[in-house]
Every structure is written in C-alpha cells, then in structure tokens.
Amino acid sequence: MNATMSGTRLFALALSVALGGPVTAEPIVQAKPASAVTVDIPYQAFTLPNGLRVLVHTDRKAPIVAVNLWYHVGSKDEPVGRTGFAHLFEHLMFNGSENAPGEYFTPFESVGATDMNGTTNSDRTNYFENVPTTALDMALWMESDRMGHLLGAIDQKTLDEQRGVVQNEKRQMENQPYGQLNEVVARTMFPVGHPYHHFAIGSMNDLNAASLDDVRTWFRTWYGPNNTVLVLAGDIDLATAREKATRYFGHIPATPTMTQPKVDLAVPSNNGRTEIEDKVSQVLLQRNWNVPQSGERDADLLDLTAYILAGSASSRLAERLVHQDQLADSVDATNYGSQLAGSFFIRAMVRPGVDSARVEVIIEEELKRLLMDGPGADELARAKTSYRASFVRGIERIGGFGGKADVLASCATFAGDPACFRKSLDTIANATPAEVRAVSAKWLGNPSHTFLIKPGDRKPLGEEAPAVPALLRLPAVDARYSTSASDVDRLQGVPQVGSFPPSNFPVLQYATLKNGSKLILAERHDTPIVHISYEFAGGYSSDYGGKLGTANFANQMLGEGAGDLNSLAFKARAEELGAELTAGATLDSSSASLSALTENLDASVQLFARMLREPRFDSAEIERVKGQWLSAIAQEKAFPQAAALRVLPPLLYGDAHPYGMPFTGSGTEVSVAAIGRQDLLNYQGKWLRPEQATVIVVGDATLEQMVTVLDRHFGSWKGEGAASTRMEVPQVTRPSAPRVFLIDKPGAVQANIYAGGLVPSVKDPGAVQMALSNNVLGGVFTARLNMNLREDKHWSYGAYTFLTSALGQRPFVAIAPVQIDKVAESLTEMNREIGDYGSGKVPATPTEVAKVIHSDLRSQPGAFETAEGVLGTIRNMVHEDRPDNWLQVRNAQVAAFTPELAKVAAKNLDANGLTWVIVGDLSKIEAPVRALRLGEVTVIDTDGKPIAAMDK
Question: How far apart are CA 68 and CA 55, in angstroms?
C-alpha cells in the first residue's frame, strides 16, 4: 500500500477539488493499543439456602434494574419423544402463574419495562426485563411466582394455546428461504442420541404428544432455585439485592439436582456433504466443523480464527471471494460455543451464475494457508481490537440480549465462575500468531461437512420417527437445601408500584462547527464509546424522478474506500481502530455514523471525515456492489415479508409519487443496473453537505473536546453550488374500497398478511395521539391484534401494527404471518379489529388508554439507558424539526391522552380504504380469500405487476 501512496493521494486531492474544495492531506492519527482502557463487570455474589445463586452488579447510570434469570435447562435435556419441550415451557411460563393469572406481560407493560423477553437454546432458558428501580419488587414477585407457583395455572387450554403458538413459530421459521438449514445441520453434525441432534424448537409430532403430566414432570425436574442463576444489575446494591431475593425467592423449595450431559464434541470421522433444493434466489454454501465447547481456551482462540478467515470486511476470504475474484456476495465465519460442543462454520452466499465449486476451492486454499502459516501480526491485532471493541459495546447495556447481566449469568451457568469473561479477554489479548495457527490446525484440520442450498423445489424435511420417552425417575432433593419463611402474602396479588423515576434524558449541549453544521451533544461517560451521527436530508424520496435506489446506494458506497484507502484498506483501518462506520438512508433522510472507542476518537473521526469528504466511488467497486444489490433484491423477493414491503408502497401511493417505491430502499433491478459513478457524485453534491446538516454526538466526550476534534477534521468542508431542498410530498386520496393483492409462494406453510393504509404525517399536530392510538390496536404485545390472533386463536406467532415515520402521509401497516389453513379466518379477524376500532364501534377503553400512557412514560428510563437510545430520540427531533424541549412537550401530550383522543386518532384507520397484500401458496389461499368478498382480488408478481389468469 505504501508504494502507491503518492499516486492515490494525488487522485484523492483531485477528486476532493471536484466534490467540495481542496482537502489538506493530514498525517494519519495512530491507533492506541487494544488494552488502552480496562473494561470489566464488577459483581458481588451470594447463594440462598435453597440453592439460588444471585449476582449483583451496580451501575447507577439510569434508575433501572435488569432482572435476568437463567435456568440451566435447554433442548439438550429433552428425552427422546419430547423434543421442543424446553422451548414450549418458555412460552408456558409467560402465560400467567397461580397468583397472577392472565398475560405475564401486562403488569410489566404498565410499569414501562424494557428489553423484556425470554429465549431457549440447547443449553439454557432465560427470562429478562429491565424495570424502573421502584418496580423491582413487582418484577421479583412475578419472577418468583412463576418459579414457585406455576403448575396450578397450567391447564389443558393453556397447553393447547401455547403449543399452537410454538407450532406457528416453527412454521414461520420453516417458511423462510434457507429455513431448513438449522435443522439439517443439527441432524447431520450430531448423531442420533446426542443431545444436540435435534433443533430447539422440536418436532410437530412431539409437540402434539405433550400432555399435562409431561408438563408437570418437566417443571418439577428443572425449574427450581438450585438450577437457576438470578442476576440483578443496575440501580441496586448488595444489601438490597440480598433482602429482596430472600423475601421473594427464599421460600421456594429446591428441585432434584439433575446430572448435566457429558461433553461430547462428536467430531466426524469423515468429510461429508449435503445438498438441498429450496425456493431461494442464490446458492448458500456452508462448511461446518465440530470444535471445543464454550469456556475452553481453544474456543476463545478459534474466535480469532473466525475473524481472520471471514469474520470481518477485510478478512482473507472477504478479500478473495468478495473483492478480488467476486465469486460471492458475502462470506462470514462464526465460532459458536455451546455447553457440550462448539460449532465453527464458514458461510458464503455464492453470486448468481457462479459455480459454487470455485468458491469451495478458494475456501480450502485460504484455510490451508492459515493452517500452514498462521495469521500475520497485523490481522491478528485487528482481530483482537475488534473482539475487545465488540465486548465494550455489548456491556454498555445492563440487561437485554448480550448485556452485562447476560455475560455474568452465562459465565455462572456454564463455567461456574461469573468472571469467566475475564479469562477469555486475557486469552484474546495475549494470543500469539503461533497459538492461533496451532489451534486452527488442531480443530479445522479435522473432517468437516459441507452444506449446499441451491435454487429448486423445496421438499419437506419430514420428521424422524416418533418415540416413546423413557420413564423419568427423579432423584431425591439434596438435603443441604432448605427454605426460609416469607412474609409475602401472594393472595394480595401483584404488588402495586406507587411511584416512578423521572425520565433520565441527558441535558443537550449545542454548538456550531466551522463548516456551518449544528452540533448536538449528550454526554454519557459510563462506557468508553463515542457515537457520532451526521444527519442529512436526501432519503429514498430524493430518488423520485431519477434512479430508484440511488440514495441508499450512494450512502453504502461511502464505506467502500476514501482518499488514498481503497475499499479493503478503508475497512482494515476501521478495524485497527475498533471503529464502526456506516451510512444509509430512510424515506426522508440519510445519515453517516461512527461508533468509536474513546481512546481512538481522534483517529476514528479522521477516518469518518475522509469517508464523507473523500469517497472514492471507484467504478470497479460500484460494479461489485451493484452485483450484491441485485442479489439482495432477488433475496427480498424470495422472503415473504420483504416481498410484501416491496410492492405495498407503490400500491398505497402510486408509482408517480416520491414514496411509491420499495420501502427497503434498494430500488429495482433496472434502476440499480443503471446507476453510475456520476449519479453518486451528483447525490453527494446535492445532499451530503455540511451547511444544513446536524452532527449528533452521544457518549464519552465533552462539548469542548468534540468541537475541537470535529473542527479539526470537518472544519474546512464546504459544499459546492446550490444545495437541494426537500420537495413537498403530495397528498394521496385513499381508495374508495378495499383492495386485495395476492403473491404466490408455492409450498409456503404460512400466509403473510399485510394491510396498509395512509395516515397523517409525523408532523401532524395529532401525531403523538396517533402513535398511542396505534399501540392500543397493535403496537405492543398485549394489544388487541396480537391477543386475538396469537393468544386467543393461536393462528399466528405474532400480529402487530406499526406506523412508519414520514414527513408526508405515512403508512399504517398491520402484519400477521398465519398458518396457511387459517388465512381467510385471520383476514376476517384483522379486518374486523381494524374496522371496529377505526369506526369507533369498539373504541379504546380507559384501561387500554392508561396502559399505553404508562408504558410510554414509564419506559423512558430504560429506553434512554444506552447511547443509541438517546441518539435515536435526538435524530427524530432533528428530522422532524422539533424544538429543543420536544421531549417535555411530547410527554405532556402523552400524559393528556384520553379515550376520546384515541377515538379521534383512530378515525384515520379506515378499513374500507385498506390495501391488503397476502403472500402464500396461491393454490391454498386464493379460493378462501376470494370467497370473503372483501374487495377486488388481483394476483400480482413480486414486482407488483398483475398476472393474467392464464399465467398463473
């Protein structure tokens, strides 16, 4: 790279003159060592007499507490003939307990819980939520009630309901392109009898065979305090945690101590190959190895191997397959650790028209080269920095997926040491090229299995022969466990929460940069990360009258090389710094973002400035990325959800409207193929300019510091010529009658139902009320639509409504993936729910209104816990041109929301003007949909064009 530095710098300077004035070549700011700032998760621990392990981490940045329970039971523990039981039980435990019957989510929504969910994998089941500090007693009461008082709440009706929901979740997974892969991999890589031989969601036969007696035995076996880790993280201390954990959980008796299955890597003795045909647009190639389980030193080192091979944009296989030979649209490598064995795999999306054998040859070549020579010092250093940066970003969150509570719980559950992450960080930091080479050769030199999914007709996998589970004889409970008396009167019901902490939105600070950009800063010093987002106009709608997809394409190309750095060199430089640089567009705006480690802030901002000021827009890279985009459009058409979102906007707005384009922002095959370098330069010159832009900074920095560093690298940036301005978005008249459009997906086991309509702009005076009114209908888990189709009918895994932000009329969309034999019934229910609500026949009740008010206002401490949450709120304020005190203005409107205001807002939802798009197997859905006589029915292709009857 140094040999061509002079020539590339001259090219960059010439290009910069054309795009916005000369840029003085700056000396490169050097990255600091990866260990410059120490990161840790300090904790304290205690164990109750009944065996419950409790971990406490104090973090006072927000008035919330993360409650995270890990039960050490997963699909690995399921007996033959009862696969899917752990996951089914996860659902059952959200369906109410003896002293809190009804929906488990209801009291949590009323207190503003955030990051709330439950998950099941092969090794564990977890439940987690972040709650305001004052609601901690309620959360612990609820969690302890389902741990200690569940069985009386499970009857046949409840079992049947949640079994139906799980089966629809399984159908939803299988309905996706490549949706059979995970189950095929599990069956292939682990032999019959191995705990990992079956996928966590289980088989339909086994789910159908589950009885109430099975459920009761399963619960008594696995869901006791002695098989659980409870993590309390956030606004809490040890004394408080001990008192509350003892009060709410101490009375629950222990369950038998079950033996965990032994570690069994099941390394294949020979190489293997499996080829599958599926309704896909391009070949997926995946090569799998069985490797050491999580917690092993070799497993940590294999994380580095994955990164070096294909885990980053500048990795070896990305360079060969994506950039140099352009045989694949993407390639990645993952080392996935589990309790009994690990799985290492390389996955490539083969470019259409390319022989996948060529891809396999290159994967083998690069693998052999790494096993022979090991990694270079520079690529290993990048891998270490990226690993550490990923960890730092993850632990900004106290709860939720991958937050600090998750890290502690995982280490405690599987390693018996809550601090096991420290050992992994140390292993990574001190790894040598020789160690990585040796471990790579040891495990990736073993036999592997190649999976190939290619376009064709999907064949059902079929289920393995049903089996009768062996009688489970439970051992006696260990005598060392005991209980403590509790003063909690559970007959009084769920504890009421009397007060709530105020919103913790940070104070905003303002400045103006030398280039005219407005700077908004929110300081957050809890994590050594700084998030920067440069906000511009020029979203998808700016493509109107030109080539659809230009806005998004131009923004993506910003990261494909800048100044004297070609695409690979640019990506490698970002990885050296531990920086993440992205750019993209939405309907009305665009943004370029940087997430930087504090220790490398100056060098990262320098790279960010080069990305915005000196994008190369190399013709060769444009053609390469075009190929990726064309593949992505084909993938969108193959996935039911994306296919619907491509055709729905033109149907709602019309083709001759700025919003009448695919909401994916990817354009069409014809428009993308026509995009050239000059189109990107034109877009940059019109829209990516500093004069009317806003820079948002949230994170570990001060105003003085940010003005200095931003002015250093952006201060001389100027736009040339007249800047473009947003066009006025024309109004669209609603259809006078419902319309129904069908897209055929032969063999689909689900139908994806979309209903679309238009409501007033996000700038409308009633926009806040419209959003709240939408939440009553379908915006939250316990809203009407989901309770109907999922919890009552169990025809769907989830049914929701949402409003897209738009400065013009914005789309209202209702979504429900439903089992294919219930499409007409589901369509009827959706139409009735929307119609009854919009017409005022069944208006919002005071209880529903109170719920959405409380959920909105009380969730803000959790919503603003992370820098990204704060940044997102500021971004909305910028693009919607809100006043500086908008949050206070908005919250006052939320607090003043009433059933009457909900009714007024709901009038925007006119069932008689809805546009329906249904994606499914036409042979199964067309006749029942037509029989409803809901509206004129038209069969269309994935471009939205009508298909004549003879073509069907």
Answer: 10
